Amino acid sequence: MISFEGLRLEEGQPIYQQIVLHVKRGVVSGAIADGDELPSRRILSAVLGVNPNTVQKACRALEEEGLIASHAGARSFAVVTPEIIAACRAELVRGGAESWARAARGLGLGLDEALELIREVWDCSKEGEEP
Amino acid sequence: MLEIKDVTKRFGNKTALNSVSLSLAPGELVGLFGENGAGKTTLMKCVLGLLSHRGEVLLDGARITRKNIARISFATCEHSFFPDLSGAGHADFYASHFPAFRRRRFEVLMDFFALPMKKAPRTFSTGQKNQFEVALALSQGADYILMDEPFSGSDVFNREDFYKVLLGILDSGETVLLSTHMLEEVDSFISRAVLLHAGRIAGDVSMSELEESGESLMDYVKRAWNYRSDRIRRAIDELNGDGEDA
């Protein structure tokens, strides 16, 4: 069963997107494997304290992106292939890079300085790796 | 469908509700927000026919009478249970008066709130009394559940857990109208927000609409109420200004 225990909802980003991102992170980290079952919409709604419409919207988005497949009886299962893992990783890294670049620019950093900074912190990032 | 049509209520020369119209569809979880005295409680009492009023309230096209009133339940912070009748006694009483009474749900909620079945509710704390009131309203078997500030006296963890349990037990056809001040606590729980301001509907928005627009519920409410963020600054300026009374 796909776990949503670790998902802390935050202000400022649509909740359905946070649910989708949680699944993508799980796919990349290996926490979610091919064929893992998604909790029922009702359980998911209760666990997260989120309106059923929002959960439904997240599930629709996950289905459209091919990350889950729904079988008869409305049960849904994760679809994890090497291509999907690669696509999720690329998207998550890009998203992180974009917000970092925006923040760096906002603080007046030039591209060269930014790249230099990346080089500097790249090796440090080995320790204290985030999941 | 619960339709409130052009409802106006006056207390003496004070207008508590000013031609309020509102429709609630099956399955909606609606937050009703408004300042103290905005008319939230009055609106709920008019729906239930507890207050005489102008305009009409229709439940699937029919006026509210003894025949269909059981389809609406009401949890009020003024409390509507019998103070000396135990939880078990209430279950029996409800079962004999409401054919759709959900005994299993009642037991689950009593257990969830850790409320004793055999004690008289007058011995409960204020928070427990509110929880008992809510448990009864949710178990009556009503299609439309009105809750008026049900959680005053409960701590934040209890409230958060309660919303989750509520999401887990509600059937897709059950409709909730919940009045509260705790905007940020319920904004992910509700599907729609209705704002009352000085007896009028000042805003009515679906949460998915709001989400798409990128506006938070708090900002929407402030905008609808014409909240002036500069008023704190002005007050400080006035106090610190040239006035001798500062």
Protein described:
The complex is a heterodimer of chains A (131) and B (246). Chain A folds into 2 domains: 68 residues, Arc Repressor Mutant, subunit A (Orthogonal Bundle), CATH 1.10.10; 42 residues. Chain A is built from 5 helices and 3 strands; from the N terminus they run H-E-H-H-E-E-H-H. In chain A, strands 1-3-2 form a 3-stranded antiparallel β-sheet. In chain A, helix 1 packs across helix 3 and helix 1 crosses helix 4. Chain A is elongated, with a radius of gyration of 17 Å. The two termini of chain A are 19 Å apart. Chain B has 246 residues and is α/β, with parallel strands linked by helices. In chain B, 35% of the residues lie in helices and 25% in strands. A 6-stranded mixed β-sheet of chain B has the order 6-7-8-3-9-10, sandwiched between helices. In chain B, strands 2-1-4-5 form a 4-stranded antiparallel β-sheet, with helices on one face. The radius of gyration of chain B is 20 Å and the shape is globular. At the A-B interface, helix 2 and helix 3 of A face helix 5 and helix 7 of B.
Shape of chain B: globular
Instruction: Provide the spatial order of strands within the biggest beta sheet of chain B.
Output: 6-7-8-3-9-10
Low-confidence stretches of chain A: none
Q: Oligomeric form of this entry?
A: heterodimer
Task: Please identify the structural class of chain A as seen in this structure.
Answer: mainly alpha
Based on the coordinates given, report the CATH architecture of the largest domain in chain A.
Orthogonal Bundle
Number of extended strands of chain A: 3
> Roughly how many Å apart are the termini of chain A?
19 Å
**H-E string of chain A:** HEHHEEHH
Q: What is the helical fraction of chain A, as a range of percent?
A: 55-70%
CATH topology of the largest domain in chain A: Arc Repressor Mutant, subunit A
Largest sheet of chain B: 6 strands, mixed
**Large-scale geometry of chain A:** elongated
Q: What's the helical proportion of residues of chain B?
A: 25-40%
Largest interface: A-B, 18 and 16 residues
